[in-house]
């Protein structure tokens, strides 16, 4: 079953697009192939000194899963599901 894609204007856009497209999405999650071990914890600590600890890629698995689900919900809002 194809997904539904529609253009959502940014705040600075004045034109409204009403086109809706059927799309097929291929999604792969490769991060499950790596264990969050001592090496990853050290990498997180090192990168946290340089950058915002919440925005770096190496984070604790529970936080990563919450951030990932938040992203998916933002990209695919519930009201956009078509039956």
Description:
This protein has 83 residues and is of the alpha+beta class. The protein has one domain (3-80). The chain contains two helices and two strands; from the N terminus they run ββαα. The protein has helices at residues 38-50, 61-75, and strands spanning 3-6, 20-23. It starts with a strand and ends in an 8-residue tail after the last helix.
Detail the topology: elements first, then pairings.
Layout: E1 3-6, E2 20-23, H1 38-50, H2 61-75
Antiparallel strand pairs: 1-2
Keywords: ATP-binding, Kinase, Nucleotide-binding, Transferase
GO molecular function, one term: 1-phosphatidylinositol-4-phosphate 5-kinase activity
Domain PIPK: 1-76
Kindly state the number of beta strands. Answer: 2
Unreliable runs:
none
- Distance between the first and last residues' Cα: 10 Å
> Helicity level, as a percent range?
25-40%
- Spatial arrangement of strands, main beta sheet: 1-2
**Total tally of structural domains:** 1
Structural class: alpha+beta
Biggest β-sheet description: 2 strands, antiparallel
Pfam families: PIP5K (PF01504)
Organism: Anisodus tanguticus
GO molecular function: 1-phosphatidylinositol-4-phosphate 5-kinase activity; ATP binding
Protein name: 1-phosphatidylinositol-4-phosphate 5-kinase
